[in-house]
Design a protein that fits this description.
Blueprint (H helix, E strand, L loop, with lengths): L8 H35 L3 H29 L1 H22 L3 H14 L3 H12 L5 H8 L2 H20 L1 H22 L14 H12 L2 H21 L2 H8 L4 H11 L3 H15 L3 H20 L3 H27 L7 H30 L3 H19 L11
Helix pairs in contact: 1-3, 1-5, 1-7, 1-8, 2-3, 2-4, 2-16, 3-4, 3-5, 3-8, 5-6, 5-16, 6-13, 6-15, 7-8, 10-15, 10-16, 10-17, 12-15, 13-15, 14-15, 14-17
């Protein structure tokens, strides 16, 4: 992996473009969420069918991430990211013409999941190439502010358009905005081509090397830790609003405002935790305390009852989750040879999100068995504590040098 050795304004600009490209999948998918909420009855589909499409999209994302990094290394991140970003621009617009056919909608949702296959791996590689090793945490933090950018863009742009002009206007606007982002990316980003190798590897040899890179102790432990962290957060997300409204007595509007506002911390915490891990020359010194802080915030939900305290707990938990996972992502990437970083990043991302496919069901069973939302909170606290213990035994990866 060719890498910059100096911190430059150009490098920061390129990483910001990677952040914008990372945002397009969240802008596209959140447009879908707002659109079906407003129009699913007129489309002639049921809530069960919506759930099936959501599951299909998530499964497609998880499965294709195993191969997305391989595409990056074979064709270069620029070509692959343009194709994936272009798909996210086309899918909302295509929905306007296909909404009367449930099979067509299902295909579009599956394609949306598949289009995510190379976004994380490609943007990660792009960020690592354009900022020097001693700023790798910052680079990763900037690109992973992309989901927050996409969510905020969708939240401010789409609902008002749907209310004023109809759901079709919201979908078309989302496709147009994404198209502009992809076009700017295509025009301004140079390079991103696959690196020439002295000796061409056979596909079977390449696969063996990727698998071997994934079998090192740090990579395995980091993946298990991230699967646990992401699974806990995704499982909690399915029930947190119910907890705040049914057990704590908040209105739906208040609960939604609290959780929505808390997502804004990502703009600051994503790059902030990266800067901190770079400054401390340690990923673990940020990851482990943050995981423990998240566990404590879960206990705090059961202890405190005032609205102000609950708001504080939501902001603490969101900040702690980002600070626990973003440096961990960098740590795992730093644990493998640079020529296989994209492939292993894709596999890591796929494995991490498998946890989120299981935990909502598991947490639902826990809730049914105990009849208490607090049991879910304590389960999350235990999962984050387990992840922190796993990370204690991982080897520190920060060197300030190229991989």
């Amino acid at each position: 992996m060719k890498q910059e050795t100096k911190f430059t304004a150009h490098g920061v600009f390129i990483v910001l473009l990677a952040c914008l490209l990372q945002s397009v999948q969240y802008l596209s998918n959140n447009t879908w969420n707002y659109g079906y909420a407003a129009a699913y009855e007129s489309w002639g589909i049921t809530l069960i069918q919506i759930g099936a499409m959501a599951s299909a999209c998530q499964l497609a994302k998880s499965l294709t991430n195993f191969f997305g990094g391989i595409l990056i290394e074979k064709f270069g991140y620029k070509r692959v990211l343009i194709v994936c970003g272009g798909m996210f621009a086309i899918i909302p617009i295509a929905t306007v013409f296909c909404y009367q056919s449930y099979p067509a909608l299902m295909v579009l949702r599956i394609l949306a999941g598949a289009a995510s296959c190379s976004i994380y791996a490609g943007c990660n590689l792009m960020a690592f190439e354009n900022l020097p090793p001693q700023n790798r945490g910052l680079a990763h933090g900037i690109i992973l502010a992309g989901p927050n950018v996409g969510i905020v863009l969708a939240s401010f742009l789409i609902p008002s358009l749907i209310e004023a002009k109809g759901w079709e206007a919201g979908f078309i606007a989302a496709g147009a905005v994404i198209g502009v982002i992809v076009l700017v990316f295509a025009l301004l980003v140079k390079g991103g081509k696959p690196q020439p190798k002295e000796k061409q590897e056979k596909p079977s040899d390449y696969t063996k090397h990727v698998i071997r890179a994934c079998l090192n102790k740090n990579w395995i432990m980091g993946t298990i830790a991230n699967l646990t962290l992401v699974g806990a957060v995704m499982g909690l997300g399915a029930y947190l609003t119910l907890y705040l409204t049914e057990e704590k007595g908040l209105s739906l509007v208040t609960a939604g405002a609290i959780t929505g506002a808390a997502s804004l911390v990502g703009f600051f915490v994503n790059p902030g935790c990266g800067i901190l891990s770079d400054a401390l020359h340690s990923r673990k010194k940020v990851i482990i305390p943050s995981a423990i802080l998240y566990a404590l915030s879960m206990v705090g939900f059961t202890v405190f009852h005032s609205t102000a305290a609950l708001i504080a707990m939501v902001f603490i938990k969101d900040s702690a989750f980002l600070s626990a996972t973003r440096p961990l992502n960098v740590m795992v990437a730093e644990s493998v040879p640079s020529e296989y970083m994209a492939s292993t990043s894709g596999i890591y991302n796929a494995c991490s999100f498998f946890g989120s496919s299981l935990t909502p069901v598991i947490f639902g069973a826990v809730l049914t068995a105990t009849g208490s939302y607090s049991s879910i909170l304590y389960t999350c606290a235990v999962m984050f504590t387990i992840a922190a213990v796993i990370e204690i035994f991982m080897k520190e990866t920060y060197t300030g040098k190229e991989l």
